[in-house]
Amino acid sequence: MPRDTNKLLYDLRDLTILVVDDQADVRNGLKRLIGTLGCEVLTAASAEQALEVLQNEYFDIIFTDLKMDGMSGVDLMHRVKQQFPEIEVVMITGHGTIEIAVSCLQSGASHFITKPFDNKEILSFIKNAGYKILSRQHAQHNQSKYASRDIVAIDPSMREVMELIEQVAPSKVPVLIEGASGTGKELIAREIHNRSRVSEKPFLAINCIALPDTLLESELFGYKKGAFTGAHKDTKGLFEQVGGGTIFLDEVASMSMMFQGKLLRVLQEKVIRPLGTGETVAVDFRLIAATNKNLEELVADGRFREDLLYRLQVMKIELPKLKDRTACIPALAEHILQRAAREIMDPGETCPSFSRAAIDALIEHNWPGNVRELENTIQRALIVCKGEKIQPSHLGFSKNLNLASDLFDEFDSYENEKQKAIESFQKVYIQKALQRTGGNISRAAELCDLTRAAFQRIMRKLNIESVKSKEKV
């Protein structure tokens, strides 16, 4: 039966592959090998039999021997491409027919493999062809009600997220987004807002971990002139400024128990009390909160209010880690690459494409920093790549470094090079902590499990400036 073209859930296990060869041992060997990827594999003993099967079955990839009794693999390839141009056709050839196989590539074949087979080459091709199909399906479904300009949702876990977004967006119930750092919690919050009935109103975000209670309260609730030193005029807080739009509170687990009580009152009564006044102000807002912690565990430990948790998670959306949805990495990487090219490259420059080896490296990487790390990796690759293809060496993964890389151009002593590597790590780590906390050194030190003094010593040693103060420590 032809595949349902409305289907968006797709990974390598969804691939259907046909192996065509008049030698039973070749057919069975390829079927066992390809089956290790979880794909559905059917076989045909001739080109004629393959055409009969194609009348009732849809295939993503066809492997066909070039020379067979009866119709040749070349003729089969032409027939398939005329009727199903989207099917990937791979020619199986002996060394003596490579010239013919190359000619087939010019006529529409996707690849050719030579006997005896290189198992890794075959599996690598199937992975990359499968992910290319994922990307194509994603593009074809741009008009789906679940489609998003910014979110690649072609794997089951993200499809479920998009369905939840579609369900919750029209209402004004609070939403809690849980996910590890770098999974895109603010992106999801913005998507909910953009699909809501108040999309034309403001979306205001604040990172709770970056501010102590007093500043967080003044930012959210506002203050009257003279309420504290530096309060030179009446200032509306975000709850009042949003005017019926969406407030996004990131890292809510970092709020103190005292402030959690104040936030609970706002959610219950929809009123705020600006600092420096005893008067209350009615507010209208839609709240979306996010955390990279398990709030239920924090409740059990007495570090988060249970009543606030129930208020926040009327609807909960859990975001998967990138390592748990590797099937979408090629399509996601391509999406990020095109966006980065528009931002980084000059007009008229040609954007490089990913090599097969680079895609394999992206898939195999563990991605502790999730999508944010993927974005940084691709931006780096785009900057350092000088050719038409992004190679694994451009990605900056440690396992791709070697003694010929630019990291060791001067080739200093082992101890000196090790010290450089340590300082490089420290600098990136400290800078990211400061970015996470908006330049707040005390909170950054707490985030890194360091004392403020130790954190400042590292900053002074590496000549790092606070993002907030722009002053050297």
Task: Based on the model shown, name its key terms.
473 residues, alpha/beta, Rossmann fold, Helicase, Ruva Protein, domain 3, 5-stranded parallel β-sheet, 18 helices, 13% strand, elongated, disordered N terminus, disordered C terminus
Give a verbal description of the structure.
This protein is α/β, with parallel strands linked by helices. It has 4 domains: 12-140, 3-Layer(aba) Sandwich (Rossmann fold), CATH 3.40.50; 156-320, P-loop containing nucleotide triphosphate hydrolases (Rossmann fold, 3-Layer(aba) Sandwich), CATH 3.40.50.300; 323-400, Helicase, Ruva Protein, domain 3; 410-461. Helices cover 43% and strands 13% of the residues. The chain has 18 helices and 16 strands. The chain has helices at residues 24-35, 47-54, 73-83, 98-106, 119-140, 156-168, 185-194, 213-221, 238-241, 257-269, 295-300, 306-312, 329-344, 356-364, 370-384, 414-436, 441-447, 452-461; strands at 16-20, 40-44, 61-65, 88-93, 111-114, 175-178, 203-207, 222-223, 235-236, 246-250, 271-272, 281-282, 286-291, 315-318, 353-354, 389-390. β1 (16-20), α1 and β2 (40-44) form a beta-alpha-beta unit. The longest helix has 23 residues, at 414-436. It is elongated. Mean pLDDT is 84; it is low at 1-10, 399-410 and 469-473.
